[in-house]
## 1
Amino acid sequence: TDRTAAEEEISGPLAGLEPVAVMPARRSEQKLWDEYVGRWHPLGYKKPFGAHQRYFVTVGDGRRLGCLLFAASAWSLKTRDEWIGWSARRRAEALHLVVNQTRFLLFPWVRVKNLASRALGLAARRLGEDWERRYGYRPVLLETFVDPALYAGSCYRAANWTCLGLTKGRGRQDRHKVGLSSPRLVFVLPQRPDWREVLLGEGGGHGQAE
């Protein structure tokens, strides 16, 4: 609809847009968020799987510059699972504490250097509180996938995410090697110092707020 039509280019230094914020999409805004992502994101819109949280990237005058979505993590991911060091049984018990950043979109008319990494940092800092308010617990690890044929993942590196390597090119819920896709870079961002102990069942908090 006209609500998500392209706008005039927004450019210039990041400081000129302050304050930049990442704000949860209100219930009344969720269809608008869906429309923006369906229209402008290369992967389009898909209904979020399981627990999820939508965000808008905004600036002080109320303009929306982009969208983010955090949702349920990939069921089995060799690169991630070996890095964590958990067993299949422990993964089944604690997987809800890993959250996938499944969509990140800055609108194509927004051309502001460093805005992407700034938005990622703001989202990561507030996600735990928002997630706990909505679902009763805090994630301890964030993950995301980047298509290396299209992107280098520079904004994730700048926002202190760690690249673990490439996926095998299987679908996010695939357990039987069907639904193959091209390999993706895996990036992760711990949300608390003892994240590994919690995921391995050795921490006392098990992802709850302290």
## 2
Amino acid sequence: EDMHLNYDLIHGEKQVDYKKEIQQVISENVKSDKKIRKDAVLVSEFLITSDTSFFSNLSPTEQKRYFETTKDFLAKRYGEQNLIYATVHNDEKTPHMHVGVVPVTEDGRLSAKDVVGNRMQLVKLQDDFNAHVKAHGYDLARGISSKRKHVEMAKFKAMTAQEAEQVATQNYEQTLSQIQTI
């Protein structure tokens, strides 16, 4: 019901066929004569967010400026021409932005490995990102690196539902106990 609050900082209201956009960026920016591998990474996605309290202290205008600032950071780092989308989601608990980047190297190759990099390069990305947003007036603490592993969405939802069921069962048993006492 809140989907109307979402917006794309690159395309605005325009409906976009992202597959076509990706192919266009590849055809315009990849200079290799080699055929693109079937298993090549065509888009690397970044998730830009913070905690709910950070966003609750921002006006909608300041929130949009925050996301524009972060999009500009990624555009400068990976090339404006390689950004496919920068979609802000306000229809979920915490506002966040998905940014899609076609991983084209400076010498015109399609290589997520070289563009996005390894663990140490991702740590540096987060350090640089934090310095960038602080320089633009956003007092964010640098995220803490962890060894946590990504959980697939379906599994995460199942785990969350199971936890909710356990809480509901405990509440039911407490209520039943109170009723019996009365």
